[in-house]
Amino acid sequence: MTTDQIGEIRKKHFLHTTVHYYKKPLQLVKAKNQYVFDETGRQYLDCVGGIVCISAGHNHPRIKAQLKKMLDEDEIQHTSTLYFNPHAAELAARLIEEAPPGVDRAFFTNSGSEANELAFLAARQATGETMIVNLRHSYHGCTSGALSSCGHNTWRFRSQPVTAVTSAMEPYCYRCPFGKAPSSCELECAKNVETTIQTTTHGKIAAFIAEPVMGVGGFITPPADYFPEVTKIVHKYGGKYISDEVQTGAGRAGQTVLLTKDLEIDADMVTMAKGLGNGAPIGATLMKSDIAEAMSGKMMFNTFGSDPYQAAQAKLVLDIIHDEHLIENAQTVGKYLMDSLKGLMKTHPLIGDVRGRGLLLGAELVKDRTTKEYATAETSELMERCRDKGVLIGKGGLFGNVIRFAPPLTFTRANADELLKAIDEGLFEIERKQ
């Protein structure tokens, strides 16, 4: 089927909300490691990991062999939690080994959205409270409850229920909502969580949810001191701390599998998806036993959660990440990429800020570094120019002016140089037009 034929079917039968990158849509048909291929056979360097999903690389040979073996041996594809199966049990045990202290329960879903929905439900059940505190510019999924805690108007709908949520100020150092610089900061953003609870709730909350690095918001990276301060506040007001690691997890941004552990966040729950499955639809909600016990006597079911093929793939992904030292690679190549992107700021005034952790990096483009006017059109143009050069990048931020880099953790320094060359050339081409 041609790209034009697919476009016609999408136009006729898909929802209008189904958007695509690029002026001329890109059809991808094959992939290997950090490269993807269109229907003509042209190769592209994947610098956004699908959508922050590919951790161990596209079509890793060990994953392919495992799935083929399971099919050849007629392993059952669907069990849910109603029947025992070793794959989900092994995955749960492995994730608990990687979890922060005290987190010892796991439940599997199909996505990060569902993982966060369960976290909200569990927090409300455990505390007897309903109010969820989120952050402006945050994103936690596109199901109803998750969207109610979304800090982007472009994702919200008129019918979105927001009666049991409230939003605190974002820890956005580049655009500090308090007008502070790192040198003058007194963690006003963290203290605002307490002010928000004091002024927009009845004094008790069910939970606070935050991403260690705010993904869709444009890889906003809070200072490390932010988290212990906020955790104390959340627990002071009776809430459960939910660390949303849908994008940061699976070793992408830390020294271990979970950034929550590296930052020593005293989280009551951690949610995962995306890189955990390396393309397989699986999410996970990890929690402390006291929360799980509060749910006793009720039913919690997910039709496809804990199914063998997804669970087996996720367990193998964790093995590959460790066996091939991909977390160490993410740190080494991520630092090289971060330093190099900051170096490009010397010659490209369009780059206002570079931030992130590991191989989860963002470059915010602005028309003017003094006014920080959003360079939204320039960001889209840079994506087009990089595509023409065989490099695929992503974008995010409330105004779509942040380039997002989240390549497979197998990304090499040579790959980084290929990406940097495309960014450098693309920015020069855009700036020459201005």
Fraction of residues in H or I helices: 25-40%
Q: Calculate the mean pLDDT score and round it.
A: 96
> How many extended strands?
15
For the sheet with most strands, the description reads:
7 strands, mixed
Please name the CATH architecture of the largest domain.
Answer: 3-Layer(aba) Sandwich
How much is the radius of gyration in Å? 21 Å
Helical segment tally? 14
Q: Give the low-pLDDT segments.
A: none
Distance between the termini: 39 Å
Q: Would you list the SSEs in sequence order as H and E?
A: HEEEHHHEHEHEHEHEHEEHHHEEHEEEH
CATH class of the largest domain: Alpha Beta
Number of domains: 2
Shape: globular
By CATH, the topology of the largest domain is Aspartate Aminotransferase, domain 2
Strand residue percentage: 15-25%
Task: Give the class from helix and strand content and strand pairing.
Answer: alpha/beta
Quaternary state of this entry equals single chain
Identify the CATH homologous superfamily of the largest domain: Type I PLP-dependent aspartate aminotransferase-like (Major domain)
Side-by-side strand order of the widest sheet: 4-10-9-8-7-5-6
Which helices and strands occur, and which strands form pairs?
Layout lengths: L2 H11 L14 E5 L2 E4 L4 E4 L2 H4 L8 H12 L13 H13 L4 E7 L2 H16 L4 E4 L8 H4 L17 E4 L19 H13 L6 E4 L15 H11 L3 E5 L14 H4 L6 E4 L10 E6 H6 L13 H16 L2 H19 L6 E7 L2 E6 L10 H13 L2 E2 L1 E3 L5 E4 L7 H21 L1
